[in-house]
Amino acid sequence: SELEKWVLMVTARTPTNIAVIKYWGKRDETLILPINDSISVTLDPSHLCTTTTVSVSPTFDHDRMWLNGKEISLQGGRFQSCLREIRARAQDVEDKKKGIKIKKEDWQKLHLHIASYNNFPTAAGLASSAAGLACLVFSLAKLMNLKEDNSQLSAIARQGSGSACRSLYGGFVKWDMGKEDNGSDSLAVQLADEKHWDELVIIIAVVSARQKETSSTSGMRDTVVTSALIEHRAKEVVPKRIVQMEDAIQKRDFPSFARLAYRDSNQFHAVCLDTYPPIFYMNDTSHRIISCVEKWNRAEETPQVAYTFDAGPNAVMIARDRKTAALLLQRLLYNFPPQSDTDLDSYIIGDKSI
Ligand code: 2P0
């Protein structure tokens, strides 16, 4: 009948996040429980974000999802975990204007169509899964009227992709590794909102937009099994850095923030090299960008720019203010002109916020 032809939809947009104290290694692969806490900064949604529309209709006969216009399978265990966790918490939904009433038990039978777009290269080490899974969980939570707060939703997003839990908040975010075996306390908390330190400017040098060779999931599995250094990092180094980083963020202490961020990035890549077979995420251009920033920071009295690299060769640089960002860009454009033999594609400039 005509009454059966309704569609209800929700659209949400979620920016990606960049870790300044890195997550690398799991203690539980299914629940996605990490071996250390991590801290990240959520970018503003103008450049690196996912936009997701979720819809429900009695005319849909199975759950389907499209990523950048191409249908993808929802059969993976991680999607299924997220969908199951959200459906289990779904509430009654009523849209009086459209005359739609969905009872919470109806969500078990109703099917979803999900369309998601990234405005940046997928799986090139620019944390596409973080924004994607966070956006999926958030939009479904709105559609199904969940009562959970963002921290509780982050524990669901975590089961889709670890770093996704940190994109449920803007500003500076900590993923607390938690103590429980069931993962109930492994969730994100906001350390400071997006207005707290808004002088910072983030510049991303897209060294290569190609897909990375080693996925984070298999890379960190290999690290936990083979690296002799990872235990020292997770147990001795990171806990101290987490305390120091929280303090640097509260005080807006840029020199401490920068030193902690680049030392932690360098240790993460050292642990990758210590993995067997070794994992190389940075390339020659990445190393040259590090040298360029290090040389500049050493020439000044205090660090001007922080750098950090994730599971790919792209450089994320954080300048202390707009003036420094302009100088940084000038240096980068001079030393690494885009579309030259440096293998550097483009630059993305953004603020930290949501
Ligand atoms: C991070 N990365 O803290 C670290 C630093 C990459 C380097 O989180 O297996 O896609 O889905 O939990 O979250 C990338 O790993 O891995 C990541 P899964 P994820 O941002």
Automatic annotation (TrEMBL):
UniProt-listed Enzyme Commission number(s): 4.1.1.33
Domain Mvd1 C-terminal: 202-354
Quaternary context: Homodimer.
One Gene Ontology molecular-function label: ATP binding
Catalytic activity: (R)-5-diphosphomevalonate + ATP = isopentenyl diphosphate + ADP + phosphate + CO2
Primary location recorded for the protein, binned into one broad class: other
Protein name as annotated: Diphosphomevalonate decarboxylase
Record keywords: ATP-binding, Isoprene biosynthesis, Lipid biosynthesis, Lipid metabolism, Lyase, Nucleotide-binding, Peroxisome, Steroid biosynthesis, Steroid metabolism, Sterol biosynthesis, Sterol metabolism
A cellular-component GO term for this protein: cytosol
Entry's family note: Belongs to the diphosphomevalonate decarboxylase family.
Domain Diphosphomevalonate decarboxylase-like N-terminal, chain residue ranges per copy: 15-188
Keyword Lipid metabolism: yes
Compartments (UniProt record): Peroxisome
